[in-house]
């Protein structure tokens, strides 16, 4: 797994002030009539990065990819690749290739011919084509299937042919629009890791569009979360999850509890938020919200502790309630706790032990507590 590899751990060109972006979207806008699909968007992607564009349907992520590939003209702004403004460069002359869904394979051609197609069009010598195709077949582990037609393959195999075909021309950048959309869960997960290996071994830059947050979290070095043609946050999966910059991102990625309140006090590092008369939240944050302003506090279910005993200070970072629902999922248990103020919060507990002496039961009075650095302040 890439994320555990030492090489990858130190891969962070975006944090290095001397490294130059490989792809830059500078103030890119795309309008269809009076509808703005991409709105004054700026974004940098680095060489060898696995970059994911994540967002709900219609947020503009495919349009962004299609502009990079050259299938769509910009209304304004520029896209720079490796120091060159791409305006005026037709799609087939760009050093990018787009991987289409598996159904874009030619049904009457064998796997081998499908992979060779682009190379032939480019007029590559026959022997060279044969060599390249074999290399691609090995890479996607389909040597034995070279002579089959697409309809004689499984969905996953077809997907791998589509991948081999799009990599055969050795593009500097591979664009993938929902590449694993057609696959079932298990195959999808396997293919995710294959894609990550390939990208790393070939030293390519991948830009993938997906609406599947788990997929983006698994594969990407960084994720851009998009909404209504704008980028809301660009960060590593861990940062997106642990330090969402907005209510939108906190809510979009994973499960979250959000509390609303007003800023009651603040010092250099800590802000106190009054939620109601029995419950206030002390949070360590670099944010400097105005006194009395309305803010939110986001905390993930696994960061909440559930206990039967009241904590030492029951007014700060602690609230009591009733165990409303218990869902045992095997590896973890999810608790829904209905607080005194009526709000239902979600807490998850890892089942690290097989048997528990004194398990939680429904309707029991419990306390949820959390640490000062367990959640984030949301100013919007
Ligand atoms: N050719 C077009 N003419 C008019 N509107 C378009 C055109 N292409 C896209 N749009 C609109 O632009 C918006 C963004 O489309 P886009 O395909 O980029 O979304 P997306 O985020 O990729 O969504 P999905 O996940 O559903 O593919 C949508 O509201 C879409 O209806």
Automatic annotation (TrEMBL):
Residues 23-253 form the ABC transporter domain. One of its GO terms (cellular component) is ATP-binding cassette (ABC) transporter complex. It holds the Pfam family ABC_tran. SMART domains: AAA (SM00382). InterPro entries: AAA+_ATPase (IPR003593), ABC_SmlMolc_Importer (IPR050093), ABC_transporter-like_ATP-bd (IPR003439), ABC_transporter-like_CS (IPR017871), Mo/tungstate-bd_C_term_dom (IPR008995), P-loop_NTPase (IPR027417), PotA-like (IPR005893), PotA_ATP-bd (IPR017879). It catalyses: ATP + H2O + polyamine-[polyamine-binding protein]Side 1 = ADP + phosphate + polyamineSide 2 + [polyamine-binding protein]Side 1. One of its GO terms (molecular function) is ATP binding. Its EC number is 7.6.2.11. The keyword Translocase applies. The complex is composed of two ATP-binding proteins (PotA), two transmembrane proteins (PotB and PotC) and a solute-binding protein (PotD). Part of the ABC transporter complex PotABCD involved in spermidine/putrescine import. Responsible for energy coupling to the transport system. Belongs to the ABC transporter superfamily. Spermidine/putrescine importer (TC 3.A.1.11.1) family. This is Spermidine/putrescine import ATP-binding protein PotA.
């Amino acid at each position: 797994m890439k994320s555990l590899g030492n090489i990858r751990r130190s891969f962070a060109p975006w944090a290095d002030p001397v490294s130059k972006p490989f792809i830059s979207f500078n103030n890119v806008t795309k309008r269809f009539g009076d509808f703005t699909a991409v709105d004054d968007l700026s974004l940098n992607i680095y060489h060898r990065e696995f970059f994911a564009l994540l967002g709900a349907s219609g947020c503009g992520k495919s349009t962004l990819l299609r502009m990079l590939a050259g299938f769509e003209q910009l209304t304004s702004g520029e896209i720079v690749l490796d120091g060159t403004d791409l305006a005026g460069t037709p799609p087939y002359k760009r050093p990018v290739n787009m991987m289409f869904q598996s159904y874009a394979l030619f049904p009457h051609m064998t796997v081998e011919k499908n992979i060779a197609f682009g190379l032939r069009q480019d007029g590559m010598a026959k022997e060279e084509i044969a060599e390249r195709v074999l290399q691609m077949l090995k890479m996607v582990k389909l040597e034995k299937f070279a002579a089959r037609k697409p309809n004689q393959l499984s969905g996953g195999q077809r997907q791998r042919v589509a991948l081999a075909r799009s990599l055969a021309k050795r593009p500097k950048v591979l664009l993938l629009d929902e590449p694993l959309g057609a696959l079932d869960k298990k195959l999808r997960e396997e293919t995710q890791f294959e894609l990550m290996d390939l990208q790393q071994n070939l030293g390519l830059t991948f830009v993938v569009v997906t609406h599947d947050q788990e997929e983006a979290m698994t594969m990407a070095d960084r994720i851009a979360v998009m909404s209504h043609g704008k980028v809301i946050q660009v960060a590593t999966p861990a940062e997106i999850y642990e330090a969402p910059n907005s209510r939108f991102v906190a809510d979009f990625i994973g499960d979250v509890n959000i509390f609303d309140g007003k800023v009651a006090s603040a010092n250099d590092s800590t802000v106190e938020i009054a939620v109601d008369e029995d419950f206030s939240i002390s949070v360590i944050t670099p944010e400097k919200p105005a006194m009395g302003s309305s803010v939110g506090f986001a905390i993930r279910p696994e960061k909440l502790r559930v206990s039967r005993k009241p904590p030492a200070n029951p007014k700060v970072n602690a609230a009591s309630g009733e165990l409303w629902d218990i869902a045992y999922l095997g590896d973890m248990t999810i608790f829904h706790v209905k607080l005194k103020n009526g709000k239902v919060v979600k807490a998850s507990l890892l089942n690290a032990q097989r048997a528990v002496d004194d398990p939680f039961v429904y309707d029991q009075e419990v306390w949820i507590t959390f640490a000062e650095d367990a959640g984030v302040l949301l100013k919007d």
